[in-house]
UniProtKB/TrEMBL annotation:
E.C. designation(s): 2.3.2.27
Lineage start: Eukaryota, Fungi, Dikarya, Ascomycota, Saccharomycotina
A Gene Ontology term for the protein's cellular component: nucleus
Function field: Acts in a DNA repair pathway for removal of UV-induced DNA damage that is distinct from classical nucleotide excision repair and in repair of ionizing radiation damage. Functions in homologous recombination repair of DNA double strand breaks and in recovery of stalled replication forks.
Entry protein name: Non-structural maintenance of chromosomes element 1 homolog
Stored InterPro entries: Nse1, Nse1_RING_C4HC3-type, WH-like_DNA-bd_sf, Znf_RING/FYVE/PHD
Length: 247
């Protein structure tokens, strides 16, 4: 049973709790067992540790659904050699992340997303010299297909944003590069303390309060609209800005 869940994680890197429970339910019925998803994931995590992999818990920022993500624990030489991207493509990916997290992209409001048509124009000149538009688009499509970026479509325009996999597996890198010691654009949800790129943002300029939508529901549960105030600056949070690639 653990092999089936492990294969699902290896294939997709991200397993949603609902999908995992459906798989476990069917396997329990076939095998006559009564295992939970948590038990099976524990076995999987133990089995992959020797390969410098781990299974971590996160959640979907939009729905709040728990998700389980297979991540590299360390960049060993073997892992580096096994990567599906060459050094130049990794450099381009880092440049794309720089653009997604740049102060220009996220001012005066958070966005963490960019139109596919604009992204190359926003990359620095050195990157643009080395990669044509077609090459940049090809690498982005590969990053999307392998779960490193998420693509949305808004009125025919393709929008690129960080994926669940990137936010989980590269979280330390994102904090180092874009936290207060870097560009100071990395954000966390005040409700769950997990990374924030989708949800609601206080309207007060400079206020750092961010809440995922589900966390906002919990945060303000039982309060009428007149009492839904920002916990940091006291501003009316019913008019909070929506942060989403499609907004």
């Amino acid at each position: 049973m653990s092999a089936v869940i492990a294969n699902a994680l290896i294939a997709n890197r991200v397993l949603r709790e609902g999908t995992g429970n459906e798989i476990i339910s069917k396997l329990n019925e076939i095998d006559g067992t009564d295992l939970s998803l948590k038990e099976v994931l524990g076995t999987v995590a133990g089995n992959v540790h020797e390969y410098d992999l781990d299974v971590i818990n996160a959640k979907d920022q939009e729905t709040g659904e728990p998700v389980y993500i297979l991540v590299n624990k360390e960049a060993s030489e073997a892992a580096k050699r096994a990567t599906l991207f060459d050094a130049g493509e990794i450099e381009l990916f880092k440049a794309i992340l720089d653009t997604l997290y740049s102060p220009e992209t996220n001012s005066p409001r958070d966005r963490f997303s960019i139109s596919m048509g604009l992204i190359r124009d926003l990359l620095d000149d050195e990157i643009k010299k080395r990669y044509s538009y077609a090459e940049t688009k090809y690498v982005i499509e590969r990053l999307v297909s392998l779960g490193w970026l998420t693509k949305y479509v808004r009125q025919g325009d393709e929008i690129i944003a960080p994926s669940l996999r990137t936010l989980a597996e590269l979280n330390s890198y994102l904090q180092e590069q874009y936290g207060q010691e870097g560009t100071d654009t990395y954000r966390k949800c005040a409700g769950c303390n997990q990374v924030f790129t989708i949800g609601r943002q206080c309207t007060t300029e400079g206020c750092r309060l961010r809440l995922h939508n589900k966390c906002a529901e919990i945060y303000f549960r039982g309060r009428d609209e007149s009492n839904q105030k920002c916990g940091l600056c006291g501003a009316d949070f019913t008019t909070a800005l929506t942060v989403h690639p499609l907004s």
